[in-house]
């Protein structure tokens, strides 16, 4: 495991061992501890008391961050007829079924794919290419829909998808280090509200075990889970 550099160690030393902060305080501290020369992504990592191996304990969903992620998202819409025009007018970067052949050949220059239900029969065979990269459109994520204009605008406006991993953690970007504390706090709050709502009925005991936020290069800052007490009842 590579050793952390001097700047990281110095930043980590400013975080008291075992300390847990209110969400707003944690956001401010993450910004203070940032030392990279680029606009770092701020990420939240939430550890949940669920068993992802059981279908009734999968935590997944979507949330529109009020202030977006700070990242330009390239959206491809697989549609035909009038839906192509709607997608273009909504700001989609790539539109049309002709691009499906390019995907089969390895073209993946997009971040999110949206498809209308009537073309999923053509999209389905590309699952072996799209699936492993998390690009396969799904109804649960709102990316299989006839309302392509809304889907594109939501995604461009800061909609993200989240899913618990095999270790019971959920990771998500909540903005950039250049965002104001208020913007990051609002995004964090929107994300955590959705995590709370996504609690499976089969989850037992304290649902949220830990919440940590950090910048790309900086140390993690722990948030007091009592801030989300309603999730543990």
Tell me what the structure shows.
The chain is an alpha/beta fold. The chain has eight helices and nine strands.
Topology:
Layout lengths: L5 H7 L10 H11 L7 E8 L11 E5 L10 E4 L3 H9 L3 E2 L3 H6 L7 E4 L4 H4 L3 H4 L17 H9 L2 E5 L5 E8 L4 H17 L10 E8 L5 E3 L10
Parallel strand pairs: 3-4, 3-5
Antiparallel strand pairs: 1-7, 1-8, 2-6, 8-9
Key terms:
globular, 20% strand, 233 residues, alpha/beta, 9 strands, three-stranded parallel β-sheet, 8 helices
**Strand order across the largest sheet:** 7-1-8-9
Give the class from helix and strand content and strand pairing. Answer: alpha/beta
Cα-atom Rg, whole angstroms? Answer: 19 Å
Distance between the termini: 38 Å
Task: Give the SSE order as H and E letters.
Answer: HHEEEHEHEHHHEEHEE
Taking pLDDT < 50 over at least 5 consecutive residues as the criterion, the unreliable ranges are none
């Amino acid at each position: 495991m590579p050793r952390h550099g001097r700047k990281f160690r110095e930043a980590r030393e400013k975080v008291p061992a075992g300390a847990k902060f209110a969400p707003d305080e944690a956001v401010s501290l993450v910004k203070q501890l940032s030392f990279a020369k680029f606009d770092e992504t701020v990420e939240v990592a939430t550890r949940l008391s669920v068993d992802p191996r059981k279908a009734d304990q999968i935590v997944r969903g979507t949330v529109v961050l009020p202030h977006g992620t700070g990242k330009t998202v390239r959206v491809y819409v697989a549609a035909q007829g009038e839906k192509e025009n709607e997608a273009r007018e909504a700001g989609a970067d790539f539109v049309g079924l002709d691009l499906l052949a390019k995907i089969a050949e390895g073209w993946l220059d997009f971040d999110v794919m949206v498809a209308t239900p009537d073309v999923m029969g053509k999209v389905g065979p590309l699952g072996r290419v799209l699936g492993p990269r998390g690009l396969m459109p799904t109804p649960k994520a709102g990316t299989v829909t006839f309302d392509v204009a809304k889907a594109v605008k939501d995604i461009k406006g800061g909609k993200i998808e989240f899913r618990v991993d095999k270790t019971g953690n959920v990771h998500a970007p909540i903005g950039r280090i250049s965002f104001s504390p208020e913007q990051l706090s609002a995004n964090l709050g929107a994300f955590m509200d959705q995590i709370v709502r996504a609690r499976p009925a089969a989850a037992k005991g304290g649902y949220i075990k830990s919440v940590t936020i950090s910048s790309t290069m900086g140390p993690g800052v722990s948030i007091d889970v009592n801030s989300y007490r309603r999730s543990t009842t």
